[in-house]
Each structure stands twice: as structure tokens, then as C-alpha cells.
TrEMBL record:
InterPro entries: VWF_A (IPR002035), vWFA_dom_sf (IPR036465)
Record keywords: Signal
Family matches, as SMART domains: VWA
Organism: Oharaeibacter diazotrophicus
Name of the protein this chain belongs to: MxaL protein
Biased composition range(s): Low complexity: 333-350
Top-rank taxon: Bacteria
Gene3D superfamilies assigned: von Willebrand factor, type A domain
Length: 350
């Protein structure tokens, strides 16, 4: 019994897989999802350019605009993500957490439009902003992802920052450190939003003038116990932007959050999944694309084999013509070499 041609077998299997794909096969599966609010720092230091995009300097905020949509796309369907911004000492919610797969274009578009001009004040009180974001998360029962470079402006008093008055660990989530570890200048802008150079030491207070003066202030030039108890403003680097990682780690520890430095979208997905509460949900996985892709591959192989067979059949007469008509091979008679004549002995007559 002859076997059917391979191309017919491929076409038959492809047809079966196409029928399976058309039937829309699905699989129900329980997966862990997350329910988080992204709180993005939009203060002035986030305009510092210590990232790069294909060799072009990129600000911290622009880097987040490019990275966060990929992070959202990497989350499991059924997860929910909200978006808020932080400036001054408060976090402002742009939208509550929504499902990432069904509403991904909405989330990605909102992230793409984050801008430093959304800030309503110039201060950057990171500790207060984190505490406020935690209060919002606790009231709405979602986890928090707070993304900031940790730069307080004005600087915190020498005695420390504001205490956290909530219950540690009530809200789970992640503090994400944004920016590099090498100080870079902070761009400044005029009243029309046009870049106008960089901040200098004279533009930015180098220490806090809130509360009692630091120890040793009486030894500073210009010190006066009543009129100038802090003395002259010391030199410093508050006009430069650098990731204040120690400060962010301390804030995360005080509030019961985890900490991670910003990396790739996949690394952020892993860190958020580990820090946030898992929310098991039953999802329906569509298997039709897998069956359809297999059908296309097999159909393509069958067509390729059919085309190859057609080309071979078309070339067969040409090859035969090039060879010419068939003739039986000529036979040659063997050449017989004459042997040397041997003379018979003559008879001697008696």
C-alpha cells in the first residue's frame, strides 16, 4: 500500500488545527495578580538627565514614561494598576486601579503624558508624600509602588524627617529608587516652561532652616543668637540631583515597604510581584492563537513542498533535452592479437 504524499498529510493536519482554532479553545487557570497604585514623583529633580535612550540623555521622568508601559504590559492579565503623581507633600490620584489587559492603551497613554508641569508646587517633601500615599492606599485597600529619587527640597532638618504615624506594614508595596548615583545638574525653566540653564548653589537652600539650628552653628560666620542662629548658609550639593538611596531605604523600612532600585521592566515586575499581596483570580486563556499558528506553519510547509515539486516537474523536460536522446552504449569487439607462428618440425625422409 502506497503512503500518501507528505504534502497531503501536512495539508490535512493543518486543516484539523485550523478547525480547532476556529472552535476557540480555552483553558481556565487560577493565577496570582496584583492590585497596585503607581505614585510617580514629578518634582524638579526628576528632570535631571542621568539615563540615556540610544545614546541620547534622558531625564528620570522621561525614563519612567518609557519604562512603565512595558512594566504594565508584563503584569499578569487580571492585575490592576492605578496612577497618581507626587509633588510638594501630597499624592494626587489620576485614576484608581483598573485591569491591565482590557485597559492597557488607557494606562499607557496616561503614563506617556506624565509631565513635571503637573506639579502644583515646587517643594519635594518625599517623606510626607510617601506617608500621604500610604494613607490613600490603606483607605482604598490597594498596594503601593512609590517611584522617586528621594531628594527632599528643602532639605530635611538635621534632627530628621517627619515620623510615620500609621501602622507599619498595613499597606504592602515597594519604594523604587529612580536615578543615578553620580550627582548631575538639575535643569531649571522659566515661567513659560522653557529650559533656562541649571540650578546653582545660590538658587537652592543647602540646609533646612526649620527647627533649632544644628550643633556647631555658633561657630559659623555671621552667627547671632537672636538674628541669625543658623549662621551663614553652608556650601553643599543640594542643587545637584542624585539618588538618595539611603533615605528611601530608611523610609521603606519605617513604613513596612520593600525597596528596589529601578531596573528593567521585567525586574520591576518581579520586585512588585514579590512585594505586593497576591490576588488569585481565575482567568480564561485563549488557546486558539496557538492552534492557528501551528496550522499556518504546517500549511506553509505543505505549500513550499508543493511548489518545490512543481518546479522540479517543470525542469525535468529541460534537463532531459540537455542530455539528448538516449542511445544504447556502443559495444566494441575485442581485439585479438595474432599469436606468434610456431613452425612444425619437418619430417626427415629416410
Amino acid at each position: 500500500m502506497r503512503r500518501p504524499p507528505l504534502r497531503l498529510v501536512l495539508f490535512a493536519v493543518a486543516a484539523v488545527l485550523a478547525a480547532v482554532a476556529a472552535a476557540g479553545p480555552t483553558e481556565r487557570r487560577v493565577v496570582d495578580t496584583v492590585d497596585v497604585m503607581l505614585a510617580v514623583d514629578v518634582t524638579g529633580s526628576m528632570n535631571a538627565r542621568d539615563y540615556d535612550d540610544a545614546g541620547v540623555p534622558e531625564s528620570r521622568l522621561a525614563h519612567l514614561r518609557r519604562l512603565l508601559p512595558a512594566f504594565v504590559a508584563g503584569l499578569t492579565c487580571g492585575s490592576r494598576v492605578g496612577l497618581s503623581i507626587f509633588t510638594e507633600r501630597r499624592s494626587f490620584v489620576l485614576f484608581e486601579p483598573i485591569e491591565v489587559c482590557a485597559t492597557y492603551p488607557v494606562i499607557a497613554a496616561a503614563i506617556a503624558n506624565l509631565d513635571w508641569r503637573m506639579a502644583w508646587e515646587g517643594d519635594s517633601r518625599v517623606a510626607d508624600g510617601l506617608h500621604h500615599a500610604l494613607g490613600l492606599a490603606a483607605a482604598r485597600d490597594y498596594d503601593l509602588v512609590f517611584l522617586s529619587d528621594g531628594q527632599e527640597a528643602p532639605p530635611l532638618p538635621w534632627s530628621g524627617g517627619p515620623p510615620f504615624e500609621g501602622a507599619k506594614g498595613t499597606v504592602r508595596g515597594l519604594v523604587v529608587g529612580v536615578g543615578g548615583t553620580v550627582p548631575v545638574p538639575i535643569p531649571k525653566f522659566d515661567d513659560r516652561g522653557r529650559e533656562a540653564g541649571f540650578y546653582t548653589m545660590e538658587d537652592i537652600p543647602q540646609e533646612s532652616r526649620v527647627g533649632p539650628p544644628p550643633p556647631g552653628a555658633e561657630n559659623r560666620p555671621g552667627w547671632h543668637p537672636r538674628n541669625n542662629p543658623f549662621g551663614e548658609m553652608p556650601a553643599g550639593t543640594e542643587h545637584l540631583a542624585v539618588l538618595r538611596e539611603d533615605h528611601l531605604v530608611r523610609l521603606a523600612d519605617e513604613t513596612g515597604l520593600a525597596y528596589a532600585r529601578l531596573g528593567t521592566p521585567a525586574e520591576l515586575v518581579e520586585a512588585v510581584s514579590a512585594a505586593a499581596r497576591p490576588h488569585p483570580v481565575e482567568t480564561v486563556v485563549d488557546r486558539a492563537p496557538l492552534a492557528g499558528a501551528a496550522a499556518l506553519v504546517l500549511a506553509g510547509l505543505a505549500v513550499a513542498r508543493l511548489a518545490f515539486a512543481g518546479v522540479a516537474a517543470a525542469l525535468r523536460p529541460t534537463a532531459a533535452a540537455l542530455r539528448g536522446p538516449w542511445r544504447p552504449p556502443a559495444t566494441r569487439s575485442p581485439t585479438v592479437r595474432p599469436s606468434a607462428a610456431v613452425s612444425a618440425p619437418s619430417e626427415v625422409s629416410s
